[in-house]
Amino acid sequence: MERHGNMLVTHKMKWGDCxxxxxxxxxxxxxxDDSDRNINFFWGLGANNIGLIRECERLGEEWWYxxxxxxxxxxxxxPKPEIHNKEYTYFRIVKGGIHTKDGILTDGKRxxxxxxxxxxxxxxxxxxxxxxxxxxxxxxxxxxxxxxISQEEWIDKTVKELKKHTDREIVVRNKPRPGNKWWNKPxxxxxxxxxxxxxxxxxxxxxxxxxxxxxxxxxxxxASSVTTTDLSMIETPYKPNVKAIREWMTVMSEHQxxxxxxxxxxxxxxxxxxxxxxxx
Length: 280
Description:
Elements: E1 2-3, E2 8-11, H1 20-30, E3 39-43, H2 49-59, E4 62-68, E5 91-95, H3 109-116, E6 132-135, H4 140-147, H5 151-162, E7 170-172, H6 187-191, E8 194-198, H7 204-209, E9 215-216, H8 242-253, E10 256-257, H9 259-264, H10 266-276
Parallel strand pairs: 2-3, 3-4, 6-7, 6-8, 8-9
Antiparallel strand pairs: 1-2, 4-5, 5-10
């Protein structure tokens, strides 16, 4: 943990290869808040971050969560995290939570930039005549943090509830990790015959919606405004129109930034507008 002149607190991981060691210098350079209160930044929920976040909440201190972006060129995660292209790699920055929930609709220029870079495509509408349900749990750490149960318990509980409302095939896809059967298998392969994706907080909901597949998510998932949040609705999932999808994508694009945008203050100014409706 390091404190800076304006009471910025960047919580660094002990692991030397953690991406927080690359990201925090940009935060420390570009975050222009000059107040005398503590402003905490966390990379992910690893190490003791959950306990530290709980302490921030207990003390009423401001905290921000930083993680991989919603729309971004993917980083290498294992065995050593690596950013391949800084101009195409985005990181989400969220105040007081791990997902963006609300935001101010802008002119969409940031989303257009992502389209021009080939990171997002034009939403084509909903797929039809699909069969299976794809259940994609969040990591064990996120599941415990959000749902207060283990990942295995969440899977069992979710599948059991789904079976009350549908007789469709239910397939579980866990997060790809070295050595498991999903490693090096893009989620787009599993989405090809998916009727609906079900998750708690996984960003797989974004993959689903942007690949024509409706989803059911936790109420605080970033995709909750364009998905269903009730498992009993599995046979009639919400399928918003193209305008609603673009507006949702536009808001998300205003909460993720490249390292250079973070270091230059672009992220700070954009987020102030989003959270305080104030241009600095």
